[in-house]
């Protein structure tokens, strides 16, 4: 079909061209007409030949391309197109059905997600409320435990004072009964051993009508103080003291005896250091540091320093010259610290200092001469002081066993030093401060001093007031 079209187009172009030429020759002279007709005849022959060729060519094309076969092909293509359209329609319907199902599933899923989200929000709110209640209950329990501990400490302290009062009243009553027995011989005599001693004392006096020595003072509510060191005179009564001694308070720190050796740090040299070994053999979740202290400087300096490889300030009690006089930093696991007011120990006299800490609620207490001067909580709550470090007295460590600074050195005297791995109660602190007892279970004392360096002196004094004062 394409070739026949091209042939017809060529024929339509050639025929007008020849016809135009023939028309132009008819207008010429008569002599030229005969060649023109000859040429026209030849052109007609050529055109006939061309028609025959074209017809044969078209017949060949028609023979090769049967219209019926083309129609059959068109029909087949139409059938295939209808099939494809049908399949496309079916596919589209299936896709639309799937999309509708998917939309329905998505709506259900979204609805379920909203329900789940609402349940999760409700659960989260319930858990939050439960957590708040638990935190509040835990806080109330901690406060109750802390209040109970404080009440127990106060109760023990009160019981200790009551016990002293009871013993004092019992002694006065026994003395009164003894004196009444001597004044009225007809009354029945008690079997008390103390009354017998009082009777012997009355018998030894020149006038039986007068009470024993010191009895009047006991009736007036006063006590005779024992001699320094707690010695009694023969007969069970306190040895007489001169008026100057009687004017001093019985519980004065200078009258404490038999507390062990005294370490004297005479100046702020970085060589004045005492190493204690072994250090802490196990992790500490509580500790009590107690010691007699007499300072010879305008600031307290470093009493204790405990350093490990991971932290050179795991446990420190130090006061620098740059701090407020008497102010001491109590450090547990640098950089956490609390500032303790110890201004009262800067008078050059002996004072008993106890610093107590427990990881339960991070509670801490500071006692000076039995008085509570500082307390608090939330200080290193739940913390553990690790074992295996270096423990020194008199210097602050910037590295394990070294890195000393003279501005942080302790200048003065230390005695009765001890550390416990528990929190001492007020009664135990009072017994320590008055020389009436030493609590059991101390993990470190001055007996653990393995190295005394520099100009540190070791003195054995019967009583603290008789120990030499360290020179500046």
Name some characteristics of this structure.
seven-stranded antiparallel β-sheet, elongated, single chain, 472 residues, Jelly Rolls
Short description:
It contains seven helices and 15 strands. With about 475 residues, it is an alpha+beta fold.
Q: Helix and strand layout, with pairings?
A:
Layout lengths: L1 H25 L6 H32 L2 H117 L9 H12 L10 H5 L23 H5 L14 E4 L8 E3 L9 E10 L8 E4 L7 E4 L8 E6 L4 E5 L9 E8 L4 E6 L2 E6 L13 E4 L18 E9 L5 H9 L7 E4 L3 E4 L4 E3 L13
Antiparallel strand pairs: 1-12, 1-15, 2-11, 2-14, 3-8, 3-12, 4-5, 4-11, 5-6, 6-7, 8-9, 9-10, 12-13
Q: Structural class of the helix and strand makeup?
A: alpha+beta
Q: Give me the number of helical elements.
A: 7
Based on the coordinates given, report the CATH architecture of the domain at 255-466.
Sandwich
What spatial form do the alpha-carbon principal axes imply?
elongated
Largest β sheet strand count, sense and barrel closure: 8 strands, antiparallel
Poorly predicted tracts of residues: 186-196, 199-253
Note the beta-strand portion: 15-25%
């Amino acid at each position: 079909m394409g070739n026949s079209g091209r042939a017809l187009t060529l024929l339509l172009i050639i025929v007008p061209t020849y016809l135009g030429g023939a028309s132009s020759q008819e207008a010429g002279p008569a002599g030229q007409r005969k060649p023109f007709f000859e040429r026209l005849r030849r052109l007609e022959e050529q055109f006939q030949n061309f028609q025959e060729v074209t017809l044969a060519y078209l017949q060949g094309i028609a023979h090769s391309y049967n219209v019926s076969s083309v129609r059959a092909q068109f029909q087949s293509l139409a059938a295939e197109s209808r099939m494809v359209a049908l399949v496309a329609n079916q596919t589209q319907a299936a896709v639309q059905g799937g999309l509708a199902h998917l939309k329905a599933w998505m709506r259900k899923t979204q609805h379920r997600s909203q329900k789940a989200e609402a349940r999760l929000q409700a659960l989260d709110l319930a858990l939050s409320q439960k957590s708040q209640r638990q935190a509040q209950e835990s806080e109330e329990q901690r406060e109750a435990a802390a209040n109970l501990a404080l009440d127990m400490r106060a109760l023990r302290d009160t019981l200790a004072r009551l016990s002293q009062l009871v013993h004092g009243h019992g002694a006065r009553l026994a003395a009164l009964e003894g004196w009444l027995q001597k004044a009225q011989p007809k009354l029945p005599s008690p079997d008390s051993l103390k009354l017998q001693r009082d009777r012997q004392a009355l018998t030894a006096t020149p006038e039986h009508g007068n009470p024993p020595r010191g009895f009047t003072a006991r009736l007036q509510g006063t006590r005779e103080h024992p001699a320094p060191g707690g010695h009694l005179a023969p007969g069970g009564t306190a040895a007489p003291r001169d008026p100057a001694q009687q004017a001093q308070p019985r519980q004065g720190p200078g009258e404490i005896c038999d507390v062990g050796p005294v370490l004297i740090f005479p100046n702020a040299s970085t060589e004045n250091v005492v190493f204690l070994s072994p250090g802490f053999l196990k992790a500490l979740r509580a500790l009590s540091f107690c010691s007699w202290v007499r300072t010879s400087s305008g600031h307290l300096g470093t009493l204790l320093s405990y350093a490990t490889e991971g932290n050179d300030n795991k446990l420190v009690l130090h006061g620098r010259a740059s701090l407020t006089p008497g102010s001491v930093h109590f450090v547990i696991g640098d950089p956490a610290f609390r500032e303790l007011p110890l201004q009262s120990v800067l008078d050059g006299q002996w004072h008993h200092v106890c610093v107590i800490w427990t990881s339960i609620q991070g509670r801490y207490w500071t006692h000076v001469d039995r008085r509570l001067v500082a307390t608090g909580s939330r200080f290193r709550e739940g913390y553990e002081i690790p074992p295996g470090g270096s423990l020194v007295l008199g210097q602050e460590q910037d590295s394990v066993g070294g890195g000393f600074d003279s501005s942080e050195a302790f200048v003065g005297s230390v005695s009765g030093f001890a550390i416990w791995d528990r929190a001492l109660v007020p009664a135990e602190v009072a017994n320590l401060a008055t020389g009436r007892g030493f609590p059991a279970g101390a993990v470190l004392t001055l007996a653990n001093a393995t190295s005394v360096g520099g100009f540190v002196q070791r003195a054995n004094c019967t009583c603290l007031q008789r120990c030499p004062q360290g020179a500046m």
